[in-house]
Amino acid sequence: MNRIERTEKKYQELFHQQIMASKTDPELLTILQRFIFGEVFYIGNLSDKTRELITITALATNQTIPQLTPHTNAALNVGITPIEIREVIYQLAPFIGYPKVLNAMEAINKVFESRGISLPLANQGTVQEGQRFDKGKEKQDPLYGDGMKQNMKTLPGEFADAVPRILTESCFGDFYTRGGLDLKTRELMILCALATLGGTERQMVSHASGNLKAGNDKETMLSAMVQLYPYIGFPRISNAISVIREAKLE
């Protein structure tokens, strides 16, 4: 197939409809569609499910909420479960903040309701209130050790203990312990969110290593960056690729 044929095929698979021409910007939409669906979707080792989760991650992180509606539908169309979609967005909270997650979930939940999916979805929490630190540490240590605690130990007063504790409890205890999403997917989506945010190369170094420990090889991470390119632009992708190229198990 040529690029035009690939575009039409992939668009139909994702959105279950034929491509409709734009009435206002047909040239731009044609460039966009052929690049994303005729080219990017065919580069690398990712499944369409993973590609759509990456797209949803980028859209939520960027708060480009209108595009979340068609891509949530596309995610469901390619077999991603509602819980998987929800958990990818929930996992973003420690990285992009809760208000943005709430904005994204409002759009996603409207899609769920339009497709007859009952809300709320089944609970996926596995940790009781008093377990957040210990259970979070069980998830954190194999991937990141005590690096954050060591980095924060020179902070004054209570902050030396409070900042790393908050990270362990909120990021790892509240979210990494949840069901509905495997560790490899969580780590890959976090790396994608960090790349989307920009200016997070320091954090990406740790999470690129965390991805390797979780079982995502460099080909997978590079494939994810190519998938992100249409949504976040080349400069951020170039920075992320540099980090991934140097990533190693620590």
From TrEMBL:
User: Known Gene3D superfamilies for this protein?
Assistant: AhpD-like (1.20.1290.10)
Pfam families found in the cross-reference section: CMD
**Ranges where the Carboxymuconolactone decarboxylase-like domain occurs:** 26-108, 163-245
Q: Which GO terms describe its molecular function?
A: peroxiredoxin activity
Q: Please name the InterPro entries in this protein's record.
A: 4CMD/NDH-1_regulator, AhpD-like, CMD-like
- Please report the name of this protein according to its UniProt entry: Carboxymuconolactone decarboxylase family protein
* Organism of origin: Spirosoma foliorum
